[in-house]
Amino acid sequence: MKPYSLLVALTGGLLAACAATPPVANSPAPSSTVAVAAITPPTSPAYASTYRPMPSTNTLLRGATVLTGTGERLENADVLLVDGKVAALGQGLAAPAGAAVVDAKGLWVTPGIIDAHSHLGVYPSPGMRSLSDGNEATSPNTAQVWAEHSVWPQDPGFGAALAGGVTSMMILPGSANLFGGRTITLKNVAGRSVQDMKFPGAPYGLKMACGENPKRVYGEGRKMLPSTRMGNMAGFRNAFIEARKYRDDMAKYERDRATKPEAQPPTRNLQNETLAGVLNGEIIVQNHCYRADEMVQMLDLAKEFGFRIGTFHHAVEAYKVADVLAANGTCSAMWADWWGFKMESLDGIRENIAMVDAAGACAVVHSDSAVGIQHLNQEASKAMAAGRGMGLTITPEHAITWLTRNPARAIGIADRTGTLEPGKMADVTVWNGNPFSVYALAQKVYIDGALVYDRHDPAKQPITDFALGMTPAGGAR
């Protein structure tokens, strides 16, 4: 049986998921009729998720080694999935009537892997100029753009990531700009539109970038601000000053409109809407930043304007300020061993992730790569080895948190996924052995309790319609 098309297989479920949502105004109405509803706040239902879980069968995974993502390891344990949720963990669990029972003896079970830094869909395969939609490199501040409006759901990379055990991911714009735009969090399922993949209720992130990239793109290429790191900081500060005024003017309008019928809201500004969302704590800052000194400066910027930086991405020098990151509750999403490809990455070390973790900070293993996302478990094992080499004790039950719980925290979805705890989404990966072995392979992947990938069943090895149409088995064009 040839691999099935994700779109065809899920059409029935997606039809129900595509119910129309009320249109949202994209500009203010005439001044005589404008109402507050015409101004879309950061938390509005514009472009709302239409994701619906696939139909699932209650499932009992019996007799596995279970890494819960909470730091606990259970031997010869069962995991019960009921109605798309984790129902129970333990030994000798009873299977509900009609449940599928999977003999998982000798297998390892973990939460589904979460990639906190991916560009799938915005830099899809094939990597052609016409599909390159991750960087709106037209201004240092493009906070008004949203990554979801570039995501191509047909990217074959989603299926490849699924085979690597990845159940959720955050898609970010690129790092050409000081403010690159809003991020989007996806469930790794098929969709005719990105809204069908959009993780329901996940907060937006704002991609920001310090360091070489913005000053190179605008200073060297266009001879404009920023051309220096001090220009970067000035650009950040000016933008937040404007956003703070916009937020305050909006708040004043809200206070006045009940008693002053003539009150008018500020002219809608998509850049300032996003930045005001950051100031209000509704949008999480996801900050591309390599150097330790710049991370500290960005934390100072956040204190100046009263917001919080959720995660530093790439963060190759995070080990130098790991205690500062821990004190500020800021995560670091890092590569296992990328370094030296530009000056600001020169001090990257393989021990980075382990040292950040040892300081009590939130350590995350990320991919930033359509290839790396396929073996994030092995990237984490490199970091484990580097840490052990310097005398740190790192167990599998702890290291799995770098791939599941911590990225869920960084994205803002840890209350729903990232660990195997009763009541959480049944996003689960079953491995053929220790997931940190070089020989480890994902055997089965469940998303909201639905079996979406099975290495031994070609009918559960989905590919997109685009990829299917480009293969001989699918009828090459």
Tell me what you see in this structure.
This protein is α/β, with parallel strands linked by helices and 477 residues long. It has a single domain, classed as Metal-dependent hydrolases (TIM Barrel). It contains 12 helices and 17 strands. It has helices at residues 6-17, 157-163, 212-222, 229-256, 270-279, 292-305, 322-328, 352-358, 376-389, 396-399, 405-411, 465-469; strands at residues 59-67, 73-82, 85-90, 100-103, 108-111, 113-118, 166-171, 179-182, 184-187, 205-209, 284-289, 309-314, 331-334, 362-365, 428-431, 442-447, 450-454. Strands 1, 2, 3, 4, 5, 15, 16 and 17 form an 8-stranded mixed β-sheet that branches. Strands 8-10-11-12-13-14 form a 6-stranded mixed β-sheet, with helices on both faces. It is globular, with a radius of gyration of 23 Å. Mean pLDDT is 90; it is low at 1-41.
Features:
six-stranded mixed sheet, 26% helix, 17 strands, TIM Barrel, 477 residues, disordered N terminus, 19% strand, eight-stranded mixed sheet, alpha/beta
Quaternary status of these chains? single chain
CATH topology, by name, is TIM Barrel
Q: Helicity range of the residues? A: 25-40%
How far apart the termini lie comes to 21 Å
Concise overview:
The protein is built from twelve helices and 17 strands. With 477 residues, the protein is α/β, with parallel strands linked by helices. The chain has one domain (6-474): Metal-dependent hydrolases (TIM Barrel, Alpha-Beta Barrel).
